[in-house]
Amino acid sequence: MTSEQSKKTYALKGIGVSPGVVIGKAYLFDPLDSQISFYKLKRASSIPKEIQRFKKALKESEKQLLEVRDKLKKSRVTEPLYIIDVHVLILKDKKFSNRTVKYISRLGINAEWAVRLTLDHYKQIFEGVGDAYIRDRISDIQYVVQRILRNLSGEKKEIVLEIGGEVIVIASDLSPADTAQMKMDKVIGFATDIGGRTSHTAIVSRAMELPAVAGLGNITHLVKTGDEVIVDGISGMVIVNPYPEMIKRYEEKKLHYAAADDVYMKYAKLPAVTTDNYLVQVGGNIEFVEEIPSAITHGAEYIGLYRTEFMYISRHDLPSEEDHFNNYLQVVSAKDLLWSTIRTFDLGGDKLAPDQKHVKELNPQMGLRAIRFCLKEVELFKTQLRAIWRAGAVGKVKILFPMISGIEEIREAKKLMEETRQELLAQGAKIAAKMEIGAMIEVPAAVEIADQLAQEVDFFSIGTNDLTQYALAIDRANERLTYLSEPLHPAILRMIKRVVDAAHHAHIRVAMCGEMAGDPLYALILLGLQLDELSMNHLAIPRIKRVIREASVKESKLLLEKALTFNTATEVRAYVQDYMTKRFPDEFQKEEDQALLTNNRKKPAGKINR
Q1: Phi, psi at 101, each rounded to 5°
Q2: Which of 44, 176, 289, 566 has the maximal Cβ count within 10 Å?
Q3: Domain 44-152 CATH superfamily
Q4: 575: helix, coil or strand?
Q5: pLDDT higher than 70, residue 454
Q6: Which fold does the domain 8-31+159-242 belong to in CATH?
């Protein structure tokens, strides 16, 4: 038996963060390139010299990152440049450097050891945070630490993939600086231990349209450079050392996906109109302005959700009105978009503005966040409102308030909007003549009073991620409860129907901007509910348009009517899955390997026995 034949086959279940299937050789990425040593300083007199060595490494790291930022500007990688700025800010952060200096001084240890202790300190803080996005941001500090350690070790060369041929990069995680140094034309996919849909690896892989799976746990411990690897960014599966039959099946899936992708893109620029002439407007959800060109290419007719809290949590100071305005200007100036919906910041709980103190909350998702936080931090809120009014003078803007649970919140938010409008007019500023106001429906209380809320706003936007979480009492970040998070739960379907009925009765439009909107499995159900707009990850737009254009409202209503007769989420899903598979066999092709891999779903990795 050869060494190749004796290799174990592992199946790992992670998070598909960029769709597609790729089969190739692994390249195990080591961000450090050198062995780091840790030791006690022999003499107290060595401490000042060690502190100077650390500070020199800080300056060298900053210089390198600024060079990387310049390189990124010239490259085709559309990773947001602000991430590099975040890393530079960490290097300049006094708390970070002072803590490291304190470790060197008090413990009498070398700079490398002190830097690692600082990282451990921040890790402990971040691990206690409930919000998944914030937990993922520890990776920013890790990237900075890795660069400092590399400079302390005297290893100054940048990371470049030297391996011949095309590779799948395997890493714990990757920073923009890492990918900037890679020969990206040789990279065909990514697989990482940590991260999710908001990680840097996810963002860059989607921007470059490379298949990627994150959150695999321990793939870096199971893979060696040169191993055969399959990355399935559609189902979130990674196969290490696949056997021949499996490679054959995934080759077929790869061809099927590629062919289907070509077919889907033919629908990108077409309207989502049914066979019986019901038009659904389809938009894109974005977090960064750099996503707009790809969103338009994939058929986004408008921006249905622009999340703005990243302007706060990605920096060490508060964004000014001009910072907001210049950012929104890039959004509203984009050609080929009917309008842009700017959601006011969803800060609070664990997502804090730079000058806000962290207050421990037992359940931050139900704490002081979103509109509640905005109405408490009025000046912070008004700064954003003024910028949105000004951006509205350049392009059509709608404003969306998150986590509305009562009439008082909407009325108070509208009052502040009017105050900022009057302030700007008094200054002679150019602002929007009018502004459509929307309420996010993501709290059960908002569903109950949807008929009253509809009298206060111009449109609704249903956030199914949080609505499902709150309605079913499921922490969506809790991996042990993901099996209960079911958008087809009868309670969720009835809630959506109630909201749509209330909106249409009041003659206002209703949109959906949660993940449910971008899943083809739910397309006919949502069509049957007669939503006016669906906004989603832009990669999903062509597929959704294709399904809608091949369906009718009449059949969708019948499907919905039947689905609502079932008592359990399991029954509803089974019926809808069966219907959609028969109705669109090419779209919902059953995965042959799914049954094979089912037993590995609850484990970070599983050996496949043959």
Answers
A1: -60, -40
A2: 176
A3: PtsI, HPr-binding domain (1.10.274.10)
A4: helix
A5: yes
A6: Glucose Oxidase; domain 1 (3.50.30)
- Strands, E assignment, 515-603: 533-536
Please name the residue that has the structure tokens 């769709």: 19
- Domain-by-domain residue ranges, the chain? 8-31+159-242, 44-152, 274-585
pTM for the model: 0.64
Same fold, 8-31+159-242 and 44-152: no
d(CA 238, CA 223): 11
- Which pLDDT does position 131 carry in this prediction? 64
Rounded CA separation 15/239 (Å): 14
Given the candidates 3.20.20.60, 3.20.20.70, 3.40.50.150, 3.30.420.10, the CATH classification of the domain at 274-585 is: 3.20.20.60
pLDDT mean over 532-541: 90
Whether the predicted pLDDT of 86 surpasses 90: no
- 342-380 pLDDT, tens digit per residue, is 999 987 644 444 444 444 555 666 677 789 889 998 999
The whole-angstrom separation of Cα 57 and Cα 246 is: 47
pLDDT at 605 over 50: no
CA separation for the pair 603, 11 (Å, rounded)? 9
Q: Just list the catalytic residues.
A: 200, 513
Average pLDDT over every residue of 231-243: 88
- Position of tokens 């954003």? 384
DSSP letters spanning 442-489: -SHHHHHTHHHHTTT-SEEEE-HHHHHHHHTT--TT-GGGGGG--TT-
Quote the tokens at residue 465.
Answer: 């991620």
Q: What is the 3-state secondary structure (H, E, C) of 33-45?
A: CCCCCCCECCCHH
Beta bridge partners of 27: 169
At residue 84, what is the residue type? I
